[in-house]
Write a structure and sequence with these properties.
By secondary structure, the chain is mostly beta strands. 8% of the residues lie in helices and 68% in strands. It has 1 helix and 10 strands, in the order αββββββββββ. The strands form 2 sheets. It has an 8-stranded antiparallel barrel with strand order 1-2-3-4-5-6-7-10. A two-stranded antiparallel sheet has the order 8-9.
Amino acid sequence: MKQNIKLFLLVLFFMWNLPFVYSQEQIPLKNSISLGPLIGVSSVYNNDLSYFSDNNIRFNYGVNGEYVHFFHPGVGVGCDYTYLKSRESSNNMSINIVGPAITLRYLFSPYSAVSLSMGISYMNYNENVFYLNKYSNFDKNFVTANMTMSYSFHLGKNASGMFKFQTITADWFVNPEFHWQNDDGEFLFDNDMSFFTLGFSIIIGK
């Protein structure tokens, strides 16, 4: 619990200080860096003895950071990082996702825009489940397909903001099913995993 509070306070600290790094009167049009918290739900099915065995839908929270270079006002490329965590009693799940993305943007004006970002990312999935008086750890890597829809707007002299909706899925042909064993036999961990988040980020750039 203390680690979660520290992570939340750290994100708030960066969000408070980022706008003062660069001052301008519009949203970033060339280079954009954003950081902010996320909340959402995880949907995971067909996995034996996993964190999602009793409930396929779980609440999660985390943080997202993104860099985009716009070589055209409506087209940019960059890198996206997402960390999500979910906890229920003594069991927990966390994912780290990082990868390139292409962004398509429509500018209403120099002060607001809507964007659609798509990318293929590396995801590390980790969970710890208390089962039969001991912890069972599952740690595997997947390739995810990601899509983010966002609305950016100018907040004031030193800040721009962004609301975003993000979808992440590992449920496609590049990810095989994992079969794992313990003292009780063999179990299945399918790639039927999807994550949906809402977030707000502070943006700096020029």
